[in-house]
Amino acid sequence: MNQPNRAELFIVPPEEKKLIILEDPKLPSAATITINRQDHTLANLLRSELLNNPRVTFAGYRVPHPLHPQVELRIQTDGSEAPAKVLRQAATDLLGQLDVLEKMFESEFRRAAVEATAAGEEDVGMGGVGEGRGEGDYFLGY
């Protein structure tokens, strides 16, 4: 089959940069950030979070070619902060949201297990996901 190995789509080799930031020479408050080995999933999350920032006047992305795992994120700010700085803040905010989501999932699974035990049902657990892992390990095993 012509399909590349899935690991090659997301694991960045040591000789390749994960992020390339190109500032716009005509507009100092704008930049194009190329993110290698990523797709619409991360790009759309970042774009959405960037648009929540009042300092961002434009945020959009494109995938140059569907067979190449690369996205180009275009950011323009009002000039009070650099595009790279608002991108870092958006990524940090997304990580915080994911931590909250993870805790909510874990809490709901624990609640369901307690309710099932109280009702005399078999322990529902988490379907093998995350069970038996140490504290601090990721919930989904990534």
How would you explain this protein's 3D organization?
The protein is an alpha+beta fold and 142 residues long. Helix content is 37%, strand content 19%. It is built from 3 helices and 4 strands. Strands 1-2-4-3 form a 4-stranded antiparallel β-sheet, covered by helices on one side. A hairpin with a 7-residue loop joins strand 3 and strand 4 (70-77). Helix 2 (40-51) crosses helix 3 (83-118). The longest helix has 36 residues, at 83-118. It is flat, with a radius of gyration of 20 Å. Residues 130-142 have low confidence and may be disordered.
List the helices and strands and how they pair.
Blueprint: H1 6-10, E1 19-23, E2 30-36, H2 40-51, E3 56-62, E4 70-77, H3 83-118
Antiparallel strand pairs: 1-2, 2-4, 3-4
Task: Describe this protein with a few key phrases.
disordered C terminus, 142 residues, alpha+beta, 3 helices, four-stranded antiparallel β-sheet, 37% helix, single chain, 4 strands
User: Going across the major beta sheet, what is the strand order?
Assistant: 1-2-4-3
Strand content: 15-25%
What about the largest sheet?
4 strands, antiparallel
What is the 3D shape?
A: flat
Query: Can you tell me the residue ranges where pLDDT is under 50 for at least 5 consecutive residues?
Result: 130-142
Q: What is the β-strand count?
A: 4
H/E series: HEEHEEH
Query: How many whole angstroms does the radius of gyration measure?
Result: 20 Å
In short:
The chain is α+β, with helices and mostly antiparallel strands and 142 residues long.
